[in-house]
Amino acid sequence: xxxxxxxxxxxxxxxxxxxxxxxxxxxxxxxxxxxxxxxxxxxxxxxxxxxxxxxxxxxxxxxxxxxxxxxxxxxxxxxxxxxxxxxxxxxxxxxxxxxxxxxxxxxxxxxxxxxxxxxxxxxxxxxxxxxxxxxxxxxxxxxxxxxxxxxxxxxxxxxxxxxxxxxxxxxxxxxxxxxxxxxxxxxxxxxxxxxxxxxxxxxxxxxxxxxxxxxxxxxxxxxxxxxxxxxxxxxxxxxxxxxxxxxxxxxxxxxxxxxxxxxxxxxxxxxxxxxxxxxxxxxxxxxxxxxxxxxxxxxxxxxxxxxxxxxxxxxxxxxxxxxxxxxxxxxxxxxxxxxxxxxx
Length: 344
Ligand code: SAH
What we know:
Blueprint: H1 10-19, H2 25-36, H3 50-59, E1 66-72, E2 78-83, E3 89-96, E4 102-105, E5 109-111, E6 126-129, H4 132-136, H5 138-146, E7 152-155, H6 165-176, E8 188-192, H7 196-203, E9 210-214, H8 220-226, H9 235-249, E10 253-259, H10 267-277, E11 282-288, H11 302-314, E12 319-321, H12 339-343
Helix pairs in contact: 1-2, 7-9
The structure holds S-adenosyl-L-homocysteine.
């Protein structure tokens, strides 16, 4: 089978258009149908001739993912399980908020190879990297389903975006393009578990995308235990890389920290976190741990969470508690496990 069109970046799409001997404006036209208008098939592309539509369908078929399952949370969060053209499943989440925003939490891989001990995504293993359009099209799919414009994107779904760097960045270009999805770079956040070469590359990107880093502990031993996939990227080096990122971009970095009872919630851990953050333009996002099945990790009380938040702020480290949404439908942080597949 020929590669489907959603696998292409905008640059590759332009190459295809060139190879077909078409004028360059066709690239924008086709991309707009694919992403801004979420066309279901080439037949929808009414400003392309029938002949051209036929050629495109032949050369690079358009196969939209099928929504094979979906769930709605009590809090309005919606989770969709998408089946891609090759049968691979991936989840994406739409999070509407009271102020009228709609955030899409998109996935960059099917499954994940990082194996964080507290996260459900890695449990089902790693299937494959998603390609640029497969990541980007999650935005118009959610937008259509909720009948609302998407205002923000967080690449915090399945997968490690910096283990799939070029595809993830090429997806961001589609999302950010004013004529395509038109989402401002500052409203797009990419979260990494701390893949240092990725952070270095990201600091070179000209757009003002936002960077979030899953920290979960500033004590090396604890972090190694919780996040075995990044033991090669030690905290000292991570801190230095973030410093360099800040020097280059002057854009505040978010550290995600899911508090787990008896694991990373001790006074020593708090002190280490304060030391790690001091002197850096950063923000700590404390996340209530979402319980996943057969897990030995448990959340702390809300009181504990608030104490941490207060103590961080008192120490001059900007911190807030994340309002984690969609946990009743396994749609919250760390719960995206392709549950449809597991139910079958
Ligand atoms: N691989 C990237 C993108 C995933 S983002 C990363 O690690 O940053 C998903 C976020 O949810 C990460 O911060 C992750 O550490 C966090 N998370 C994973 N499992 C969780 C759980 N059970 N409860 C709360 N947060 C969790």
